[in-house]
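User: For documentation purposes, I need each entry recorded in a consistent format: the amino acid sequence on its own, followed directly by the corresponding structure tokens. There are two entries in this batch. Please keep commentary to a minimum and don't merge the entries.

Assistant: Recorded as requested. Entry 1:
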Amino acid sequence: MKGTFLNDQIEYQIQLNGEQWLQGQSISGSLKLTNHSNSDLNLDDIGHYLCLGVPKKIKLKDPTAFSILEKNIFEENTLVAKESKSLAIDYQLPENAHITETIKSLYISCGKKDSFYETGYLPLKILPLQTISSFLDIFSNFYKFKIKSIKSKKDFVEATMNVPASKEFTGVEKLKILSRIHEKNLELNYVFNVKKIDFTASTNTLKSDVKKIPVIMTPKQYQLYGDSLNQEEILKSIDTVLEQVKVKSFF
């Protein structure tokens, strides 16, 4: 991935190794500055930045759109006229890095911290950890809960699932699964919107309720080797959770 931006005869060229990244991976590349003017350029506070940006605000060129997470500034003081300098890019994403979504996303920006709209920025495509993606694939493929949307929520990846049209899940209105790797454990929070009989009413009626089921799986439980998941153990864990919300639990 690359982008070239020209501002006041200064060319900013961002070159990144890759087109998309997983949470926990490193983003590498370089920022090249070329001074096309006849005057030397003061490099004070010029460099590249890893930012969390709000696309809606960026579209409006709102100065509060970018939040700087990390930065790397040129050590040299001057870029001589008609010459170029490069600065390596190397950012290590945390395992709970913000994934790409419509509300907020990660960007690589360049220039000075208050001039990104003039000097340039690139949106990054960040996907969930392979472990999380594989878990959601297992859940979706075996239980027919299809992924409707996926986003970051605090330190978790939140997947909103479409509930299958089967009799055993007629008591489930919605399901969100929040997942993350924390201290090597796979932490899962299942949040079900369910329909329950209200026995306190004069006539038995259905009411909506929220049922939260937390699950923590150790590496020995969810992993076989590397990124390969222990499908058998994961299916057992999911079965235990779903048994608590199947229609027989409420009627």
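Entry 2:
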Amino acid sequence: MRFSPAAGLGKLLQRFMGQGKKYGMEWWVMIIGATIVLAIVIMAFCAPYIAPFSPYDQNTGPQLSPPNNIHIMGTDNLQRDVWSRVVFGSQTILRVAVLAAVLSSVVGITFGLISGFAGGNLDRIFSLIMDSVYSFPGLILAIAFAAMLGPGVVNITLAVAVIYIPTYFRLVRGQTLAIKEELYVEAAKAIGATNRVILWKYIFPNVIATTVVVFSMNVADAIMIEAALTYLGLGLPPSVVDWGMDLAMGKKYLPSGQWWLITFPGAMISLLALGFTMLGEGLSEILNPRLLER
């Protein structure tokens, strides 16, 4: 029997719609969020082929030209194409936000596992440190670290990552405390499994699933924090193409009517953050076991 592409596509579409009926609105929220994120990720990867000009080219057209057929998002005060800068700026903000979330998740999950499994004084020390960091407002703490480390992609990534470590730590530690009392963990100890094996083979797989939702939400928050730091002059240097930098440079032209300089970068920041937020919200509902009981 020969494979029919049309039949295969029909089955895939039928299964896709079936998932929508099963989970309801949560499924479509997740799909819309994933579509937004995927579209911007593709734009970032294909930036050299999508952008008509170099983001650094200062001779693309008239200065402060409004959106037109050649420059669909206009030009800035240095005659640079705004659309090209928006396209290449997606690479910077995605790199910083995702790397910050990855770094914070690796550190937070690792320390949460060790703290919850070991207990005792080590758990008290780790919990005290993480609670101290968690007590500070995120933006204020990021500003402090960014001011201390100085501008740069690596430095702002570290500054943003620090504020999310306690979130992963508290989540994973609480679950580890509960899971280590389960019967299958006790059985693993009885057959002679080492603490390392128990931690990474029996406990870690059961806590990692819940961090996916937190990761998605943290990326959304990291996008806003990165843009805010760069807007305040504490994030990336002017030589780096970034949406937050374009906001900072375009704000002084808004009173004179050049609205496009901040409208398009600001809209992209909001859209990307919205995409990750919707993705996280949809996943949180779909992964909720109570949803399947309804």
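Summary note for entry 2:
The chain is about 70% helix and 0% strand.
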